[in-house]
Amino acid sequence: MNKTASSSFALLLTIVLVGLNLRPFMTGPGPVIDDIIQTTGMSYQSISLLTLLPMLLMGIGALIVPIINQRVGDRLGISATMVLLLFGSLARYFIVDGSSLLLTAFLCGMGAAYIQSVFPGLIKVNFPHKMAMMTGLYSATLMAGGAVGAQLTPILAELTGHWQNALAWLALPALLALIAIFTNIKTRNTSEIQKISLWTF
Q1: Which residue, of 63, 130, 172, 181, has the fewest CB within 10 Å?
Q2: Sorting pLDDT into bands at 50, 70 and 90, what band is 7?
């Protein structure tokens, strides 16, 4: 395998790992919702904010993230926001009330919103001749990540005895994605970013 092919495979793996991490923090709480309510005293209306808040951040992020990313660059921006997602998931181990749980949803939503706004352009630049296929793969990983979060959380909760532990375990794949980002993603120059800053899916 030559250097170019190796680099492309590494970036492909990074796209898969990152995509898998952008939905589990939203789908994970669903299967253990009754346990969450019992522990935190949250209402079903408050619980809905665990999904609504990140989705709102994603909508806002689509408007402002490209501008921010021009200043900080792909590698720093995506790495920093994956740290937010990782920390938000890990912090759920310590949750005892609804406010702190909503704070973790905010942190994870911030991370996902930034990454989700930047990744389409990154794919376009690095795979210009395979954009449709790579976009499809990335979208598939988003769906798969959501399914994995929903399926894995109740299993982990049963094994560990606590829903907090189950949700905190979702930080592990985020750590793997962070390592991949730092290793395989390079910062685009300003002209490249400006060309694709309005492109999204």
Answers
A1: 63
A2: confident
